[in-house]
């Protein structure tokens, strides 16, 4: 009698597990972006919607140049006015007159974490990025720097 109860409980347990098997999530596949665009250093970036990163909201409807800025507060992805005149690849020190003028043209600073120095301390430089548009999210991957695959992911609001 006791063996038949054990067999019956085992059968019930196996049926319960196998009935929920299809409900388990499948292995997640990485999403493919709807659009991918590569921006060269110095090329104007124009977001289609509001870009939100934490409490930072980058306005749409205007265009920006993208820089990496590093100072004593950290390393930042900087969104500056498109009429800023700095040649791609040129490093600008923040304590110079050109650096002070450039700091006045920066609208947004988005903090980024990096394991390597992208630019020297107290300097700024134009960067190239790859923009992967996933619809509700936009990722900007900084390319051509010592820190590979440095990515900032924004939520997009239209």
Automatic annotation (TrEMBL):
Domain of life: Bacteria
The protein's name in its UniProt record: Uncharacterized protein
């Amino acid at each position: 009698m006791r063996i038949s109860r054990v067999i019956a409980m085992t059968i019930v347990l196996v049926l319960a597990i196998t009935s929920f098997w299809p409900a388990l999530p499948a292995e997640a596949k990485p999403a493919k972006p709807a659009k991918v665009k590569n921006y060269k250093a110095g090329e104007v970036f124009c977001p289609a919607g509001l870009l939100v990163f934490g409490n930072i909201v980058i306005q749409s409807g205007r265009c920006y140049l993208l820089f990496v800025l590093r100072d004593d507060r950290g390393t930042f992805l900087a969104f500056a006015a498109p009429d800023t005149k700095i040649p791609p690849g040129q490093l600008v020190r923040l304590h110079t007159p050109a650096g002070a003028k450039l700091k006045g043209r920066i609208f947004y600073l988005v903090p980024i974490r990096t394991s390597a120095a992208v630019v020297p301390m107290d300097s700024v430089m134009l960067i190239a990025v790859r923009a992967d548009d996933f619809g509700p999210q936009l990722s900007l991957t900084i390319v051509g720097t010592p820190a590979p695959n440095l990515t900032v992911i924004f939520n997009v609001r239209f």
